[in-house]
C-alpha cells in the first residue's frame, strides 16, 4: 500500500518527467523492433502476425523479466523501486494537465488553441473541429485514458506488482503504435492489440463500475448495459458508455480519422458536452482514484 500511495503522490507532485521518459525510450525500441521484424512488403497474413508476435515477446520479455529479477535483488528496498516504477506507469497528472488546457481554451473562446491542445491526446483529425467536437473529443479521451493511464496500471500493480504495471503500460503503448486496423498494421499489430484487449478486460469493467458509482448511477448503468456492445472496442465501450451516462452527456457520433469519416455509435444520454464537461470528466477520474485508494487501504488493513 505504501508503494501505491508514494507513486500517486509522486505523480501528483512531479507530474510526467519532461525529458527521458522511459515510455518514450520504449517507443524508440518499438520502432527499431518493427523495422527489424516487419519483413518484406509481400508476405502472408500469418507470417506478418508471427513477426509481430515475436517483436512483442522480445520487447516485453526483455524489459519485464529483468525488472522482476532486479526487484527481488533489492530486498527491503524493493517497495521504493516499485513506487518509482508505478509512478512512471501512471499518467494521471499529465492527463489532468491536458484536460485543463483544452477546457481553458474552449471557455476562453480560443478554438484554434483548443484544437491544437486536443490534438495532443487524440488520434482523430482536429483541424476542422467545432467547439462541440473538441469538447466531445476531450471528454472521450479523459474517460478512456482514465482506464489506460490510471486504473489499468493500478489494477495490474495489485495483481503482479511493479512488473505487472510495467507490462500493462508497455503493452498499451505497443497497441497505440501498432494496433491500427489499416494495411500496415492489421496483421503485424494483431498480437499487440489482442494482448491489450486481454489485459484491459477486467480494468475496463472496474473503471466503468467506478464511473457508475460516482456519477449518475442509474443512467450510467443503463448506458453501459445498453450501448457498450455497439462500440467497436470491447473495453472502451463499457468505459465510455458508463462515463457518458455518469456525466449525463452524449458522446460518440461521427469523427474524422486520418482523412476518413467514421460514423461511431452514440454513447450516453443528454446534451453534447461543453468545455466545462472536460473538467467534470477529469474530476470523475480523480474521485475514482481516491475511491480505489480507499478500498486498497481498507483491504490492506483488513488483511493485516
What does this 3D model show about the protein?
The chain is mainly alpha-helical and 304 residues long. It has one domain (2-303). 72% of the residues lie in helices and 5% in strands. It contains eleven helices and two strands, in the order ααααααααααββα. The protein has helices at 2-14, 22-37, 45-73, 78-89, 92-107, 111-118, 131-178, 190-214, 217-227, 236-247, 275-303; strands at residues 251-257, 260-267. It has a two-stranded antiparallel sheet with strand order 1-2.
First-to-last CA distance: 11 Å
Uncertain segments: none
Strand residue content: under 5%
**Total tally of structural domains:** 1
Proportion of helical residues = over 70%
* Mean pLDDT across all amino acids: 94
Number of helices: 11
Task: Write the element-wise H/E pattern from the N-terminal end onward.
Answer: HHHHHHHHHHEEH
Write the layout of secondary structure elements.
Elements: H1 2-14, H2 22-37, H3 45-73, H4 78-89, H5 92-107, H6 111-118, H7 131-178, H8 190-214, H9 217-227, H10 236-247, E1 251-257, E2 260-267, H11 275-303
Descriptive terms for the model:
304 residues; single chain; 11 helices; globular; mainly alpha; 72% helix
Give a nutshell description of this structure.
The protein is built from 11 helices and 2 strands. With 304 residues, the chain is mostly helical.
Amino acid at each position: 500500500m505504501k508503494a501505491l500511495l508514494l507513486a500517486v503522490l509522486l505523480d501528483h507532485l512531479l507530474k510526467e518527467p519532461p525529458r527521458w521518459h522511459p515510455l518514450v525510450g520504449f517507443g524508440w525500441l518499438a520502432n527499431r523492433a518493427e523495422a527489424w521484424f516487419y519483413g518484406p512488403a509481400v508476405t502472408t497474413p500469418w507470417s506478418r502476425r508471427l513477426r509481430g508476435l515475436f517483436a512483442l515477446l522480445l520487447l516485453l520479455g526483455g524489459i519485464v523479466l529483468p525488472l522482476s529479477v532486479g526487484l527481488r535483488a533489492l530486498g527491503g528496498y524493493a517497495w521504493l523501486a516499485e513506487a518509482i516504477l508505478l509512478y512512471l506507469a501512471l499518467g494521471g497528472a499529465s492527463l489532468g494537465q491536458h484536460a485543463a488546457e483544452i477546457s481553458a481554451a474552449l471557455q476562453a473562446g480560443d478554438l484554434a488553441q483548443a484544437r491544437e491542445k486536443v490534438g495532443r491526446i487524440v488520434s482523430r483529425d482536429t483541424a476542422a473541429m467545432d467547439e462541440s467536437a473538441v469538447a466531445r473529443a476531450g471528454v472521450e479521451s479523459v474517460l478512456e485514458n482514465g482506464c489506460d493511464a490510471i486504473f489499468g496500471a493500478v489494477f495490474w500493480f495489485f495483481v503482479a506488482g511493479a512488473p505487472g504495471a510495467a507490462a500493462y503500460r508497455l503493452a498499451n503503448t505497443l497497441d497505440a503504435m501498432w494496433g491500427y486496423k489499416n494495411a500496415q498494421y492489421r496483421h503485424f499489430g494483431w498480437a499487440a492489440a489482442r494482448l491489450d484487449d486481454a489485459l484491459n478486460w477486467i480494468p475496463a469493467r472496474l473503471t466503468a463500475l467506478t464511473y457508475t458509482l460516482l456519477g449518475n448511477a442509474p443512467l450510467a448503468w443503463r448506458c453501459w448495459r445498453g450501448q457498450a456492445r455497439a462500440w467497436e472496442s470491447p473495453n472502451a465501450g463499457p468505459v465510455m458508455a458508463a462515463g457518458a451516462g455518469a456525466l449525463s452527456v452524449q458522446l460518440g457520433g461521427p469523427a474524422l480519422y486520418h482523412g476518413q469519416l467514421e460514423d461511431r455509435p452514440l454513447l450516453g444520454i443528454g446534451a453534447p458536452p461543453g468545455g466545462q464537461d472536460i473538467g467534470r470528466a477529469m474530476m470523475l477520474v480523480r474521485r475514482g482514484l481516491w475511491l480505489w485508494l480507499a478500498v486498497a487501504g481498507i483491504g490492506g488493513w483488513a488483511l493485516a
